[in-house]
């Protein structure tokens, strides 16, 4: 898996240096693939570009709604709850830190 700039256009390539780099760690590859799959499955905020360059909303009829922004927020909250240990009912702010 390689990552890099998403805007490889002549005007960008002619005026600056663009790079791609390999993602070597399996855990990072899995995270990146998860993000990509969720983004591509999004049918709430997504628009599709037609051959003529115009955008249209995705047809949601009969489909399970996937909102990538909401899903990532929920995942972040679940992950934060795993790492933060507070007494029940506590209102003390504890920053999320890698443990």
How is the topology of this model organized?
Blueprint: E1 2-4, H1 10-15, E2 20-22, H2 26-41, E3 47-49, E4 55-57, H3 68-83
Antiparallel strand pairs: 1-2, 3-4
Describe the structure.
This protein is extended. The model has no long low-confidence stretch (mean pLDDT 85). Helices cover 38% and strands 12% of the residues. With 99 residues, the chain is α+β, with helices and mostly antiparallel strands. The strands form 2 sheets. Strands 1-2 form a two-stranded antiparallel ribbon. It is built from 3 helices and 4 strands. It has helices spanning 10-15, 26-41, 68-83, and strands at 2-4, 20-22, 47-49, 55-57.
Defining traits:
single chain; 99 residues; alpha+beta; two-stranded antiparallel sheet; two-stranded antiparallel ribbon; extended
What's a quick, concise take on this entry?
This protein has 3 helices and 4 strands, in the order βαβαββα.
Number of helical elements: 3
Distance between the termini: 28 Å
Strand line-up of the largest beta sheet = 1-2
SSE string: EHEHEEH
Number of DSSP strands? Answer: 4
Helix fraction bin: 25-40%
CA-based gyration radius: 19 Å
């Amino acid at each position: 898996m390689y990552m890099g700039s998403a805007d490889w256009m002549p005007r960008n390539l002619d005026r600056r240096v663009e790079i791609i780099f390999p993602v070597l760690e399996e855990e990072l590859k899995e995270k990146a693939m998860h993000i990509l799959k969720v983004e591509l499955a999004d049918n709430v905020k997504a628009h599709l570009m037609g051959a003529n360059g115009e955008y249209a909303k995705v047809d949601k009829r009969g489909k399970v709604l996937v909102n990538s922004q909401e899903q990532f927020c929920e995942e972040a909250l679940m992950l934060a709850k795993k790492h933060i240990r507070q007494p029940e009912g506590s209102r003390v702010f504890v920053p999320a830190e890698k443990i």
